[in-house]
Model the fold of this input.
Amino acid sequence: MSNMFVPKSRIVEAARRTDFLSFFRLCFHMLNPSSTLNMNWHHYSIAWHLELVLRGIITRLIITAPPRTLKSLMASVALPAYSLGRNPGERIIGISHSSDLQIKFSNDFRTIVERLPEALSPNGTF
Done:
């Protein structure tokens, strides 16, 4: 009889590779270590719709939400990192209304890619 016990850390790692919301939570805590993430219904909704974009079911998506609802972190930072971790050949363009904001998104993206390779791809490389 085989041992059915799987360490929690391996389950969490697998969830981060296959579930965008789990990956987003990891990104949030890494980029904002002193902040608490209070999940609300809109986070689940945005994550669901972004996963539909990744699957190709939705080809155009506009996210309208008030400021400070983490829509930019989800869509402009975590989603490109998650997508490239799953498909390194993907091509993504980051666009923003100001160059300063896009530079911040790019730096956050770079931080995720450099510090979390094991969470991005199954073999731990990016």
Notes: The helical segments are 8-18, 20-31, 41-55, 71-86, 99-115, 117-120. The CA atoms of residues 21 and 47 lie 6 Å apart. The radius of gyration is 15 Å.
